[in-house]
Design a protein that fits this description.
This protein is of the alpha+beta class. Helices cover 32% and strands 17% of the residues. It has one domain. The chain contains 6 helices and 6 strands. It has a 6-stranded antiparallel sheet, sandwiched between helices. A hairpin with a 2-residue loop joins strand 1 and strand 2. Helix 1 packs antiparallel against helix 2 and helix 4 crosses helix 5.
Length: 242
């Protein structure tokens, strides 16, 4: 969900879902009186659908569990009882991986961060010499997964590092790493972005200023954030493949 926080705007209520089932106490030396901030985006399309489209806490927890399992498996190290010296990968996370139900700890684990860096280092500078870029689409193993488009270049560039890391986590967690695939064409991306344009939309108010429109097809969900006080209307469009 997008929010606009104007200067001196006072307190703003934020709708939220729990992404760590079963924990009701602080972790380590964390402050117990308030929530800490997170620098992460949701790292899977299943989580985006569960939180944005279904708006269901049980579905969010289910998607969290599936995402943690895939990331744990993808970041596992060679060796272990079944694969020592063979170059195979253990199914369970290595001892250094977090054993709790925390998605935040999982994406911050050094094994996961190191694996994701292969993607972020390779792609992080691709927009540097393209000052007119306002969004991106990404595919994993030849399948379009999602796209994010913003109303201005500065807004997109401010979000780019977070968006790329989330896409990298989704890519590294994919189970079909050895699949032979063809690159996605620009025509396919355009069809993906245009698919829901003519569909009817539903909307919900996030704050007095922001509303979110949702459009849906059999293959795609589009979330469109609108700022009622901005002349141009929309601020951010998020496209999620089902």
């Amino acid at each position: 969900t997008d929010l606009v926080l104007p200067p001196h705007g006072g307190k703003v209520s934020i709708a939220a879902f729990c992404v760590e089932p079963g924990r009701w106490s602080r972790r380590g030396k964390e402050a117990a009186g308030w929530f800490s901030s997170s620098e992460q985006q949701l790292p899977s399309k299943d989580l985006k659908v569960a939180a944005g489209a279904k708006a269901d806490q049980q579905e969010v927890w289910k998607a969290v569990g599936a995402t943690r399992e895939r990331l744990s498996r993808a970041a596992a190290v060679p060796g272990g009882v079944a694969g020592a010296g063979s170059g195979t990968f253990v199914a369970a996370p290595p001892p250094a991986m977090p054993a709790s139900s925390s998605l935040a700890l999982m994406v911050e684990a050094k094994e996961v961060r190191k694996s994701a860096e292969d993607y972020t280092k390779a792609l992080g500078t691709t927009v540097n010499d393209k000052p007119d870029v306002v969004g991106y689409a990404f595919a994993v193993n030849g399948k379009l997964v999602g796209a994010e488009v913003y109303s201005s270049q500065s807004l997109f560039r401010g979000m780019w590092a977070k968006l790329l890391k989330a896409a990298a986590l989704e890519a590294m967690a994919d189970d079909e790493k050895d699949a032979k695939v063809e690159p996605v064409s620009s025509e396919a991306v355009k069809r993906f972005l245009d698919a829901a344009e003519s569909k009817p939309s539903s909307d919900r108010a996030v704050t007095d200023r922001i509303k979110v429109l949702k459009k849906e097809t059999d293959q795609t969900i589009v979330f469109e954030s609108w700022d009622r006080k901005q002349a141009g209307g929309w601020v951010h469009r998020s496209y999620v493949a089902k």
